[in-house]
Amino acid sequence: MRICSPENPLKLAVLISGNGSNLQAIIDTISDEFPAEICVVLSDQKNAYGLERAKRAEISIEVLSQDEFADKKAYDEALQACLDRYQPGLIVLAGFMRILTAPVISHFENRIINIHPSLLPKYPGLHTHEQALQAKDVLHGATVHVVTSELDKGPIIMQASVPISSSDDLHSLKHKVHALEHKLYPEVIRLYATGRLNFKENSVWLDDEKLSNTGLAFRMYY
Ligand code: GAR
């Protein structure tokens, strides 16, 4: 059983490609009640603004650009070797816009989580806000799930949702979902760091109880 404490924090590797607002939410939420530390922020984009956020918080950064590697396999081998050097307890994909290959996922089995801007299983992949608006959905949201080799299909850990109003457009909806994500992701990581959440047997466990595949599915409304 993994119990972390301020003296023995959960080591997080946070992987980003862009703005890093979820990274910032995690940085801002870590505390004695959330015993974690970010051991590295890794980006596949050298100009990602999230790297500036990491530097400001005095966190180690790594940049691995695809153009330095022959193919996806070579990239993921380098990614794995880089992450292994930091020995993270949990790998947090926070807007990391790459699909990881099966060997790296299996190397870190049950230790990679992702945040996705939709209420999975609805809208895996890209352009989730556009799809929710086009479908005239009444609810939209975000999902944190365990990463498996099936894209956006790993066991759901927790979801948060928000109503779509008739005045919403792409910009406002994106903003609403981002605000949800900034509460949702730190909460999931906090529960993991305090030993309450576990991932095993292709399932999510809370306080030693196996959750249904909709995870905790807790709802947060505006
Ligand atoms: C977030 O909305 C996250 O859900 C999404 O990228 C954004 C990153 O924002 N991730 C995906 O679409 C992954 N499929 P951020 O860089 O400001 O944290």
Secondary-structure-based class equals: alpha/beta
Low-confidence stretches: none
Question: β content, as a range?
Answer: 15-25%
| Count of runs of 4 or more consecutive helical residues | 6
Integer average pLDDT: 94
Structural write-up:
- A seven-stranded mixed sheet has the order 3-2-1-4-5-6-7, with helices on both faces.
- It contains six helices and ten strands, in the order βαβαβαβαβαββαβββ.
- The protein is of the alpha/beta class and 222 residues long.
- Bound molecules: glycinamide ribonucleotide.
- Glycinamide ribonucleotide binds next to helix 1, strand 5 and helix 6.
Outline of the structure:
With 222 residues, the chain is an alpha/beta fold. It has helices spanning 21-29, 49-56, 72-86, 102-107, 128-134, 170-193, and strands at 10-16, 36-43, 61-63, 90-93, 112-116, 139-146, 156-163, 197-200, 203-206, 209-210. Strand 8 (197-200) and strand 9 (203-206) form a beta hairpin.
Keyword list:
222 residues, seven-stranded mixed β-sheet, alpha/beta, binds glycinamide ribonucleotide, three-stranded antiparallel β-sheet
